[in-house]
Amino acid sequence: MDRRQRKTRKAIFDACVSLIEEKDFQKITVNEIVERADINRGTFYLHFEDKYEMMKSFENEMIEKIEEVLVNNIPNEEQFNEQFLKSRYDTLVQLLNCYVENNDLLQLLLKSGHNASFQAKLREKLHHVFTTKVFPNLKLDYEVPSDLFVILFTSLSLSLAEYANQSNKPIDIEQLAKMFFNILIHGPAKTLGLLQVDDVENKNNYF
């Protein structure tokens, strides 16, 4: 994509971000998008077949950004040890920063009614990354299916990103990452103080 194409795509994206604050995505027309972007219809259709294909393209763009963070931080064989979780902290900080830095894109996907589609694509991508590059090197507790882990990881990370984006106060990404790890490692019940360590270890008391 050359500079001119990137500029046009950015204008279309900015127009969509603006319009989604005013009306539902289903009510937004291509005419409104091109008028707000200050381009003609022909230029729009050089980039996208219609507004739905446009949103799929935006979905893929966000997923590629997330995948880049994860793939660039895949641990080497020596890092798959007791320090594995600690070594993933920096990765999580980068991932949350990715969400926050691309807030407009993420919010467009969520507000346009493409949340389910986006999360499904993201789970599929994360499942591939985890099952091919991470899980084979770990000793997994197969009482918890890998699919379930991916769903929980995806939902929790997106929820924290949405929390950061909607907060009225400045968010410390590193502190948010620590919160994520606390929930991920200890679980909601222990994090909230509803369970003690002995209770967690003696899970037969509950299940």
Automatic annotation (TrEMBL):
Keywords: DNA-binding
Positions of the HTH tetR-type domain: 6-66
UniProt-listed InterPro entries: Homeodomain-like_sf, HTH-type_Tx_Regulator, HTH_TetR
The keyword DNA-binding is assigned to this record: yes
Single GO MF annotation: DNA binding
DNA-binding region boundaries: 29-48
Pfam families with a match to the protein in the record: TetR_N
Listed name of the protein: TetR/AcrR family transcriptional regulator
UniProt organism field: Ureibacillus endophyticus
Upper lineage: Bacteria, Bacillati, Bacillota, Bacilli, Bacillales
